[in-house]
Amino acid sequence: MALKATRLRCLCAPPLPTIKHPLYPIRTFATAISEPTEPTAPPTSTPRRSPTTFKDRLNAGPSLAEFISPPAEDDEPVIRTALVGKAGKQKEITRLPSWLQTPIPNNANYKSIKRDLRGLNLHTVCEEARCPNISDCWGGSDKSAATATIMLMGDTCTRGCRFCSVKTSKTPPPLDPHEPEHTAEALKRWGLGYVVLTSVDRDDLADGGANHFAETIMKIKSKAPSMLVEALTGDYAGDLEMVAKVATSGLDVYAHNVETVEKLTPMVRDRRAKFGQSLSVLKHAKEVKDGLITKTSIMLGLGETEDQLWETLTQLRMINVDVVTFGQYMRPTKRHMPVHTYVTPAIFEMWRQRALNMGFLYCASGPLVRSSYKAGEAFIENVIKKRARENQTAIAEGAIADSFATTTAS
Question: In what residue span(s) does the Radical SAM core domain sit (predicted)?
Answer without folding.
Answer: 140-361
